[in-house]
Amino acid sequence: MENCLFCNIAGGKIPSEKVYEDEVCYAFQDIAPQAPVHFLVIPKAHIPSVSAVTAENSGTVAHIFTVIAKLAKEQGLESYRVVSNVGEQAGQTVFHLHFHVLSGRDMAWPPG
Ligand code: AMP
Ligand code: ZN
User: What is the reported pTM?
Assistant: First the structure.
């Protein structure tokens, strides 16, 4: 999608600090990290949020989770949090599916 920030990041039109890339997904450092480790994993295809996941595109989401597990292992993360905000009330500000991977500090549960 032309006006989508994360489509443009995945397509290399807007710069980002790349963590990982394959045909299906792209991972990059969050610009405003909320923990010592904070990167985002996004599908290259535009999916607005978890609420738009269907039987047709769920393979992409499954793949993203294998990538998250691989990156966490490679980075030696023993404990981490994976978050996807859905909708404005939950804190979603970019309407292209993304999974936050956060680690390296104590985290409260339930979240504030
Ligand atoms: P959310 O609020 O869950 O939609 O998450 C959007 C995330 O994208 C936030 O954590 C932002 O800091 C991050 N973000 C926004 N713009 C950029 C950018 N240009 N490069 C990297 N991360 C970004
Ligand atoms: Zn997009």
Answer: 0.98
